[in-house]
Amino acid sequence: KEPAATIVEELKDVTSYEGEDAVFECRLSRETTQDAQWFLGDVPLQSNEMNEIRVQGMRHTLILRKVTLEDCGSISFKVGQHTSAA
């Protein structure tokens, strides 16, 4: 069983204007096959035309495209027992 990954670089708060992209980044202690999940409030996010979710090694990135006022709120990233929010 692989050891759990931990979050070594927390999310940072991002301020964006309507119509801009908002980019959130989190870095883990190691590459993992554990499920990592992004949330807007309590809603789990999927990669689609509005959101881009990227994983490059230990770096996990969420891009919210052309944000609107409805996108305002807390973004969180969860992996295993660890959570980071902005």
UniProtKB/TrEMBL annotation:
- Predominant location of this chain? cytoplasm
Location in or out of the cell:
Cytoplasm
Q: Where is the Ig-like domain?
A: 3-86
Gene3D superfamilies referenced in this protein's UniProt entry, alphabetically: Immunoglobulins
InterPro entries tied to this protein: Ig-like_dom, Ig-like_dom_sf, Ig-like_fold, Ig_I-set, Obscurin/Obscurin-like_Reg
Where is it found, in Gene Ontology cellular component terms? cytoplasm
Q: Which keywords does this chain's UniProt record carry?
A: Cytoplasm, Disulfide bond, Phosphoprotein
Q: Which PROSITE patterns match?
A: IG_LIKE (PS50835)
What is the protein name for this chain?
A: OBSCN protein
Q: Which organism is it from?
A: Cepphus grylle (Black guillemot)
